[in-house]
Fold this sequence. Notes:
By secondary structure, the protein is an alpha+beta fold. It has three domains: 7-116; 127-194; 201-368, Heat Shock Protein 90. It has nine helices and seven strands. The strands form two sheets. The chain has a five-stranded mixed sheet with strand order 2-4-5-7-6. The protein has a two-stranded antiparallel sheet with strand order 1-3. It is elongated.
Amino acid sequence: MPRPTPPWQQxxxxxxxxxxxxxxxxxxxxxxxxxxxxxIGAVLLASGRLGRGVTRWVTAxxxxxxxxxxxxxxxxxxxxxxxxxxxxxxxxxxxxxxxxDRIQRYEKAITYQHAQILAQAQLARxxxxxxxxxxxxxxxxxxxxxxxxxxxxxxxFGAVTLAQRxxxxxxxxxxxxxxxxxxxxxxxxxNDAEGLRLNLSVVDVVSLAEDTIMQLTAFAASxxxxxxxxxxxxxxxxxxxxxxxxxxxxxxxxNLIANxxxxxxxxxxxxxxxxxxxxxxxxxxxxxxQGIAADxxxxxxxxxxxxxxxxxxxxxxxxxYLSRQIVEAHGGxxxxxxxxxxxxxxxxxxxxxxxxxxxxxxxxxxxxx
Length: 369
């Protein structure tokens, strides 16, 4: 059985046949009759199926043959019009060859960039699958370790001294922090892949903030930080109703307040300001730390961004990114700015919900936990 002819060899034969036909027409007719334009077909064939080098050679041969017909067979005198026609044909062939070369160069660059994009996308999927698997596998032993430490603390394995109890408490806090990090990492990748699912209800942001501050009081006290909740110029507590997922919104408040505590100087104040701003509910968390460099503002809420300023604590760069995911999923906006004379302000706003009379809709965060 004969072997099939390779595509590149078929193209060579097509180009050769086209050249033979055009040469026969060119050299069998007087010079004023120009058939050199037909060489463009050979140039395009070479450009579409063969490399840039072959395209250049085909173009050069076509130009030489077109000009050579001026002196071969040399049976008629050469007029100015004939020279002009040949010059236009040569120009058309040269432009076709040049454009074909540029197109091949662009196609090669596009193919290379496409391959790079595919490789990066594949690498990103592999990285996300690895992180997802790793965080899932880490969660089980961490939960087991925390339960074991709780059993030790409650003296289920025998009496525990005061020094041992302190060591167990430190280990428990460390494991809980690691577990929280693992859960945050899992949530970030899940939200990126599947989107954030919200269980919406009408909640009071002030109540959520009060509960969040209560949970963080011990942590703030350990760093000698005082937290104060107020509503701007108002001296009276005024609810700020929004339609939101209470658990997710509380995570935002917890991330921002904990971030402020981390970056505050010992003995300073962290303020949580909640007030109505037009049709929105505005939440601001103000600290008295080192502030934020201007070139960091645009990157604060990116994934894994930690910054390079002199602020005291370094995190994973996930808390603010997750907070941005949650706020934007609620149709809100989150941002940060420097505070004068020192410190930073992290704020977000959500569309405010008009006051309702049905108490069943006014769900406090304590009932949703």
